[in-house]
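Chapter review: from sequence to fold.
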Amino acid sequence: MTKKRAIFEEVATDRPQAATPQGGLIDKGTSGARGAIRAWLMVLFAMVMVMIAVGGLTRLTDSGLSITEWRPLTGAIPPLNEADWQAEFAKYQQIPQFQIQNRWMELDDFKFIYWWEWGHRQLGRVIGLVWGLGFLGFLLARKIPTGWTPRLLFIGALGGLQGAVGWWMVASGLTGSMTSVASYRLATHLGLAFIILGFIAWYVFQLGRSERDLLQARRAKEDKLFRLSTGWMHFAFLQIILGALVAGIDAGRSYTDWPLMGGQVIPPNPFMLEPLWTNFFENPGLVQFIHRVSGYLLLIFGIVVWLRGRKSAHEATRQAFTLAFGALVAQIVLGIVTVMTGAIWEIAIAHQILAVILWVLILRARHLSAYPVVTSIRGARA
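The token string follows.
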């Protein structure tokens, strides 16, 4: 018969012990080199931002048509001697911009605009190289987190498309009677640049937090605020496109008074071109008027979104929407100054750079409405 155990007899400890629960299982095998990839994307973001600024200066100096061929690889080597320079200058002399507008140019004048365009294209090549080397490095090292390979490839594909769109834009000014690129092609080129920036920024936000953190934060998503911020993002993008149309035909210099235009609410002769629809793209007065009115409406909608954002239960979200709204107000003010100063290049470039900052801040606010940072009552991050 089995001996009875005493009440307080110690049970043998040689039995298998249950495994201690461990956290982080959601991220196990999926994290990869999140921090390193995030840093790489931030470098790409900064380079694309510089690319936009250089592109703006290339446009303001009328340098964009100085290189009349698209040579993605061999074009990386600039003219190395006098004969090379003369050959490039001869090509430029064949296009309408020189024949109609710049017949006064000598070789030294041509070199100035050539270096601007060459620098703009060269920076694009460097960005492509940084993306390619970074992507291949992470891929070969098997450090890309699960599900992120298609996203990083997508960024590279957009970059390649941007190069092709850039040439499509330049080609529009090489024939006929055009002395600059087509404004709608310029708007497409700039719009795609902002789309690339938007995806990079969103990925940086995503990689800044663990998959486990994002999964938990998604449960606290503020749906109404997310929808409003999505509308705000799209509206801001539309305003960026309208700004590119203004820049493409130098419409910012057509009327330099504010709040009126030529002493009127609506500028004179808003529909003077034929056919009628071309006025919305090529009539400087009407294009600037549309950009102004859209800016006012964007400000009004921004106030609505900001007031809703202030009601968020999460401090980081409230701060993000306040910061984005502050940038919007600053951009509106800077836009007015840009018009009243005749779009001098220093202020025009500042206006363009602030548009990038505003774009990213709106995206950040949108991201925090979808993935709020939950804090405890004491203010510590949960």
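Two observations follow directly from the output. The mean pLDDT is 89. The chain has two domains: 32-208, 216-382.
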